[in-house]
Amino acid sequence: MKNILFCAISTIIIFSNFNAQEIKINTEKATVEFEFISEQTSGTVSGLEAKIILNTEDLSKSLIEGSVDVSTLTTLNDRRDQHLQKSDMFDAKKYPKMTFKSNSFIKTENGYIAKGTITIKGQEKETDFSFTSQKKNIIGTMTVYTNDFNVFPKAKRASSKVDIKITLPIN
Fold first, then answer.
1. Kindly report the CA angle at 100 between 18 and 88, in degrees rounded to 5?
2. Regarding predicted confidence, which is higher, 152 or 53?
3. So what's the pLDDT on residue 82?
4. Closest CA to 168 of 71, 48, 6
5. CA-to-CA distance for 42 and 40, rounded, in angstroms?
6. Tell me, what's the pLDDT at 9?
7. Residue 145 three-state SS
8. How far is CA 91 from CA 96, 125, 155, in A?
9. Model pTM above 0.90
10. Which of 19, 16, 18, 24 has the alpha carbon at shortest distance from 171?
């Protein structure tokens, strides 16, 4: 209960200090982690570029947009990582970035949800990105399905589930 209360208070304090201003994040120390559930594989992606504008008084003026460099995707298995760059997977030469851009925000009990479009391998998909704050970090989580992007397609969409977690240190 103390953790929930602390997170709620931290979120209010951190996010309430950002009325219509850009939140400065340390992209050098930011992390993007993923877990491909059915494959029991996890990894990271680097090269984060992001812009966050949060207006707590008028969420319609808020924005999150960002990208990561597909060529930095790693699962700590060199052979698999090299294959992930190929045209039958992420096709990193043709599609060097994965991107997200918000189109609306919703305030939640613990933070915010940024509704927007994620683009992977040239395919766009509407999704929700949930954000909370912990200490001096903004934590974002979302779920995507590789089948939606023609990356490592599975017979059943549910088997292509990937959980993503982004940790953004605030400057």
1. 160
2. 53
3. 96
4. 48
5. 7
6. 41
7. strand
8. 8, 18, 21
9. no
10. 24
